[in-house]
Structure formats: structure tokens, C-alpha cells
Amino acid sequence: MLGTLAMVPVALLVMVVMMGTYTVDEGHVAVTYRGGALLNTLAYPGFNVRIPFLDDTRQVQVTLQTDEVRNVPCGTAGGVTVYFDKIEVVNRLSADRAVETVRNFSTSYDKPLIFDRVAHVVSEECSTSSLREIFIEKFSELDDRIAGALRETLERWAPGVEVIAVRASKPRVPQQVKANFELVEVERTKLLIARESQLVMGLQAETEKLVAQINARQEAEVANITMAKRLMESEAQRTISAIADEISTARSRAEADNEHYRAVRLAEANKRRLTPEYLQLVQIQAMANATKVYFGEKLPSMYVDRTSPQPSLGS
């Protein structure tokens, strides 16, 4: 009996030690409430101690986390209500501002700051937009609008929470309305295809026109080059002919000059040669060549026939 009583304090001591120690998971910090009041100290990953029965510790995540806001209603300006099945908000709490954020919004800070704010922003966007704008035209901008509104709110009320990204699913609309949208999109697609076909045909025609202009320009340039070549050839041929004519004229002039020079020189030579003595000699030679001598018994000793014509001086 005494042994059992002696074990009671030991058991109480072990229980107090176990209740006074706790662990904090990686990626989290722990805030401590003592008697209901939030302390300004943080506990970090690993083993930590607390006062049993007085301290209440709660963990908050300080790494990236994704909050999923589900089944968000969207009442459009036309009176049609659609629903977003899921809007994901990727956010992170700064460890340095964890105590401040928890003191202002509790450990469930993401409910008023993210969940409620997302529903409010979606309601504001839908109330001023038609179903077509929400479903098609403005849907690509909705993520950025929600993220911008969240950042503006958090910067003012909870600067320790950072919004990284927002992803909204396609709104869920009634099947009949969806069928009408799909039909409209089919017709829009046909219209776009027709416009694109017209554009392509116009571009093809413009391309063919440009090609024709380029070909015509090239042909004109080739014709100009060919004509210039022919003109140059004709000019060269005329130059060659003119040079040939000048050579022929010069040759004829040289030949005429040679003949004239030869005649002048011959006349000068004849003039020097036809002296009175030379003319007398030529006359005597001519008389000698033309004199006939007859021999016979009844003739004089010599008979000179002077009836033969006298040779000319130039012969």
C-alpha cells in the first residue's frame, strides 16, 4: 500500500512533464494562449515547453498553402445565378507577423480574409456583368481581379498574409444556357473562319499582285538593260565603222599622195633629163634608126631615104 502511494507523485510528475512538452511541425509556428491571452512569443519546429493546464498552443502554417473556396454563387446583372465550383487562392503567412495576424483574426485568419472576401469580390463582379461576360468575355480577367482585391484588403488589414495566385474554375451554368452559349460559339467560330478565309484570300491576292509587280519590274529592268546593251553595241559598231572609214580614207589619201609624189618626181626627173643636148642625141638616134641605105651599081654610092617619119622627142 505504501509502495502504491509512493508511485503517485512519480506518475503525476511524469504526466506534468509530458503535458509540458510538445512538438511543432516543420513549416509551422505555434502561438500560445495563457489564461486566454495571446502571448507575443512563437514556438518553432521541434520540441518546445509550456506550462501545463495554463498554456494552450496552436499551430499555424507559414509555408505556401492553397485555400479552396467552393460553391461560390454569382448573381449576374441579368438575374441569372451561376456557381463557381472552386476558387483556389494560393497564399502564405509571414512568420514575423503571425502573432499580429492571429491576434486580429485568430488562427482561422483565412476565413474572414480569404474565404469571405473571395465570395464578396465575386458577388461584386457578377452584379455588374452579364452572364456572357462572366462566362466568356471577362472570365480570363476574373483571376486577376480577385487577386487584386484580395491584395488590396490584405495590405490594409493583414500585411502578414501574401496572395501568390488565384485560380477560378469555369462557372456552372444551366444546361440550356450552356447549349445556347455553345451554339453561339459555333456560329462565332464559323464567322471567324469566314473572316480569316477572306483575310487569307486578300493576302493571297495582294501577294500575287506584289509578285506580278516585281516580275513586271524585273522584266522592265531586263528590257532596259538589253536595250542599253544593244545601244552600246550599235554605238560601238558605229565607232568601229567610223574608224574603218577614217583608216580607208587615210589609206586612199596616202596612195593618192604617193601617186602624186611619184608623178611629180617623174616630171621633175624628165625635166632635168630633157636638155637640148639630150634632145639632139635622141634626134640623131632616131634619124639613125630610120635611115635606109641602098646599095647597087646604078645608084649613087649612098642614098638616104628621108621620106620616113621622124621619131618624136618623147619616144
TrEMBL record:
Where is this protein primarily located?
Answer: endoplasmic reticulum
- SMART domains listed in its UniProt record: PHB
Q: Which residues form the Band domain?
A: 19-185
UniProt record, GO biological process: SREBP signaling pathway
What membrane topology does the UniProt entry give? Answer: Single-pass type II membrane protein
| Subcellular locations according to the entry | Endoplasmic reticulum membrane
Q: Where are the transmembrane segments?
A: 6-24
Task: Please give the GO cellular component terms listed in this UniProt entry.
Answer: endoplasmic reticulum membrane
**From the record, what ranges are coiled-coil?**
none
Q: Which GO terms describe its molecular function?
A: cholesterol binding; ubiquitin protein ligase binding
Record's keyword annotation contains Iron: no
Q: Which UniProt keywords apply?
A: Endoplasmic reticulum, Glycoprotein, Membrane, Signal-anchor, Transmembrane, Transmembrane helix
Q: Which domain of life is it from?
A: Eukaryota
Sorted alphabetically, which InterPro entries does this protein's record hold?
Band_7 (IPR001107), Band_7/SPFH_dom_sf (IPR036013), Erlin1/2 (IPR033294)
SUPFAM superfamilies attached to this UniProt entry:
Band 7/SPFH domain
Question: Which protein family is named in the record?
Answer: Belongs to the band 7/mec-2 family.
Q: What is this protein called?
A: Band 7 domain-containing protein
Q: What organism is recorded for this protein?
A: Cafeteria roenbergensis (Marine flagellate)
